[in-house]
C-alpha cells in the first residue's frame, strides 16, 4: 500500500549538523531499515500516522496514551544508530515505542545554560550544542517495544536508535498553554517560513 508514496527522510543529525533531506518511496525506505550495510543513517521524522495507513491512528487511539487535548499521531521511523540532537520541547511529550529499541538521555532544564543554546531554528523546540551523555545530571533510559515514556516540557533530551525503530510521539497542553505557548510558536514559525533571509534551521535545506 506504500509503494507509490514519496516521503522526505532526514539523512543526518539535523539538530546538530547541516539539514539534509532525501526523497524516496515510503515502501523502499521501510524495506531498507534492516539492511546492515546502510551507513547514511536515515530518519523519517514527525510523519503523520494516517499517511502511513488510515487504520493506524484508530488502532493506536485504543491505547489512550495521549490526552484528548494533545497533538497525537506523529511517527518517528529510523534505521539503527540514527540520532536526534540535544533539545527540549515547549510542551509535555509522551513517547510510545511501537517497535525496536532506543536510548534516550534526559537532563533537567538547569543542566544546560543559555550560552550553550544552538542558533539553529526548530519548530516547538530549542536546541543545544551539548552532548547529554557528557553531563553529570543526565540519565540514560532504554525504551523497548511497548514502553511509554513521559518527557516533561523543557527537559533536555537526546535520542539514539539502538535498532530499527518505530516510535509514536505526541505533545499535550492545556487551553491556557494553547494561547500562551502554541499560538506564539505558530506565528513564529509562519514568520520563519516567509522570511527569505531565514537562518539555518531543521525544516529547510
TrEMBL record:
Start and end residues of each JmjC domain: 45-189
Q: Per its UniProt record, what Pfam families does this chain match?
A: Cupin_8
InterPro entries named in the record: Cupin_8, JmjC_dom
Keyword terms of this UniProt record: Iron, Metal-binding, Oxidoreductase
Necessary cofactors: Fe(2+)
**The keyword Cell inner membrane is annotated on this UniProt entry:** no
- Recorded protein name is JmjC domain-containing protein
Organism equals Undibacterium squillarum
